[in-house]
Design goal:
- This protein is an alpha+beta fold.
- It has seven helices and twelve strands.
- The chain has two domains: about 5-100 and about 250, no CATH class; about 120-215, 3-Layer(aba) Sandwich (Aminopeptidase).
């Protein structure tokens, strides 16, 4: 069984990469975006070892899916992935541990009040270019991924938001709803607007949108603390009522694979 913390992200990326290379192999959902051959954010196998135990044959088939397209990729492993020796299998195949992510969840309690002088609005398809432009510039996403982002505002299951300073877009955040699970992602703030509460306000807006959409659980993720020190995104999530549940490893197929989302 795939837990909500993994299901929300998996279905969000399956939607984001609709029309790109996709396959369900050995219990994992494999997603490929050939325009970013080293991006392990967009080229990933998600959910491996959760709906069913992984096998060596399944790993061979997953590698064929990505390698046949010339893609460096990641395999994500939760602490619950089966069999327990799966990490050893991957390391024996030359996989390296990348930057791990902390997975979070919260209920539908209202978000705490956030002080900010920025205004938050939900964006429809008519302002998809605003959402894509701000996120690409804020997060450092490769330009070739801009069309992927521009297709999601107003798309089924997606609720996309931006924070504005007057009429100037400053930050973005999205909610994807699948069943009763809401996944929060695509958050980025332009450098000149950081420190003004943009992401706290966007978290609050997405939590409220999840409540209105009938979600029972809201989930998200960010990088694990480094040297025991949580980053700004981690602290924002905790302030918004999210609880860290576990750390998920990202196993990288090669040194070229990069999970930052900023390399093509």
């Amino acid at each position: 069984m795939i837990p909500p913390t993994e299901l929300g992200e998996l279905e969000a990326f399956r939607s984001l990469l609709a029309g790109q290379a996709q396959a369900e192999i050995g219990g994992a959902v494999c997603l490929g975006f050939e325009l970013t051959p080293t991006s392990a954010m967009l080229n990933r196998a998600l959910g491996l070892g959760l709906p069913e135990p992984a096998t060596e044959a399944g790993l061979d088939a997953i590698d064929a899916f990505f390698s046949g397209r010339g893609l460096a990729y990641a395999i994500t492993l939760t602490p619950h992935a089966r069999p327990e020796k799966l990490p050893e299998w991957l390391e024996a195949r030359g996989f390296q541990r990348g930057y791990a992510w902390t997975k979070f969840a919260r209920g539908l309690e209202p978000a705490p009040a956030v002080e900010t002088d920025l205004r938050v609005e939900e964006l429809g398809a008519d302002r998809a270019d605003v959402f894509a432009d701000v996120f690409v510039r804020a997060y450092g996403t490769p330009e070739v991924a801009r069309p992927l982002l521009a297709q999601i505002p107003g798309n089924n299951g997606w609720h996309c938001f931006a924070a504005f300073d007057g009429e100037t877009p400053a930050a973005t955040g999205a909610l994807f709803v699948t069943g009763t699970v809401g996944w929060l992602g695509a958050a980025g703030t332009l450098p000149e607007f950081r420190g003004r509460g943009a992401q706290g306000a966007l978290l609050a807006a997405r939590i409220e949108a999840g409540r209105e959409a009938g979600c029972k659980t809201l989930v998200t993720e960010t990088g694990e603390p480094v040297d025991g020190k949580p980053g700004g995104s981690y602290r924002n999530l905790v302030r918004a009522g999210f609880e860290p549940l576990y750390v998920r490893q990202n196993f990288l197929s090669s040194k070229e694979a990069d999970t930052s989302g900023t390399r093509a």
